[in-house]
Amino acid sequence: MASQSEKTFGSRLYNAEQLSTNVATFTGYVALTPETTVAAYNTLINEVGQNNTLIATLQSPFSLAVAARQNLFEKDPTSLARTLSPIAAFVKAKFGKTSKQAADITNLVNKIRGEKTAELKKDEEGEFVSQSHRSFGSQTQFLADIIATLTSYGTDYAPTNPNITLEQLSTLLDSLTAVNTAVTTAYGQLKPVKDVRKLQYEDLSKRSQTIKETVKSQYGVQSTEYKLIKGFKI
C-alpha cells in the first residue's frame, strides 16, 4: 500500500493535470510568464511524473533493505538481539557471574542494547535516517568487539548452542555488515531523487498558483473558467 505521503504527491500531480486540461480549453488564455504557458506547464508535469516513477522504482529496494536489516538485527530467531543473552549466559556460567570475562561481555552487550533504534518508517528521511545508520553501525562494531573478546578466551569459549559459536557469530557479523551497506547504498540512490521531487513540487505549486491568479485576473472571480480551477490543491 502506498504511504500517505506518496498518495499526496500523486493527488497533487493529478490535480495539476486537471488544471492544465481545463486551462487548455479556455479561449484567449494568455500566460503572464513563459513558465505558465500550457506547454511549459505540461513539460513540468511530465518531468514530475517521470521522477515519481523513478522514486517508486528506487523505494522498493530501499524498503526491502531496511526490512532485511531489521530482521537481522532484531526480529529473526538468530538475530543479533536474540544472541546477546545466550552469549552472556554462557560466559557467566563458564567463568562466574563476578568474573572479569563476564563483566567485559556484559558491558559490550549493554552497549549494543543501548544502541537499539526504532523501526525505520518509509517516509522518514534526513537526520532520522542518518542517526539510524550510525546506530546500526555501532551495534555491528560492538558485535565485532564481542567476537574478538570471545576469541581471546581460546578453547574456554566452546558453547553447545550453534547460534553463538564463533563461526556463526562471524557469519552474522558479515551479514550485518552487508545489509548495512545495502541500506546505505539504496538510500544514497533514493535521497537525491526525492530532493529533486521536493524542488519540482515547489515549482509546480508556484506555477499553479500563478496560473490560477492569471485566470482570475483575466476572466474574473465569478467566471466559469476560474470556478473550474480554483479548487485544485497542488
Helix/strand/pairing category = mainly alpha
Strand-residue fraction?
Answer: under 5%
Q: Report the end-to-end length measured between terminal Cα atoms.
A: 22 Å
Provide the residue-averaged pLDDT: 92
How many strand elements?
0
- What is the general shape? rod-shaped
What number of domains? 1
Report low-confidence residues grouped into runs of 5 or more: none
Residues in helices, as a percent range: over 70%
Radius of gyration: 28 Å
> Main beta sheet, described?
none
String of helices and strands:
HHHHHHH
Tally of DSSP helical segments: 7
Brief characterization of the structure:
Helix content is 74%, strand content 0%.
Task: Give me the secondary-structure topology.
Blueprint: H1 4-23, H2 38-75, H3 80-95, H4 100-114, H5 127-151, H6 166-219, H7 224-229
Give an account of the 3D structure.
- The model has no long low-confidence stretch (mean pLDDT 92).
- The protein starts with a helix and ends in a 5-residue tail after the last helix.
- 20% of the residues are buried.
- Helices cover 74% and strands 0% of the residues.
- The chain is built from seven helices and no strands.
- The longest helix has 54 residues, at 166-219.
- It has one domain (4-229).
- It is mostly helical and 234 residues long.
- The protein is rod-shaped.
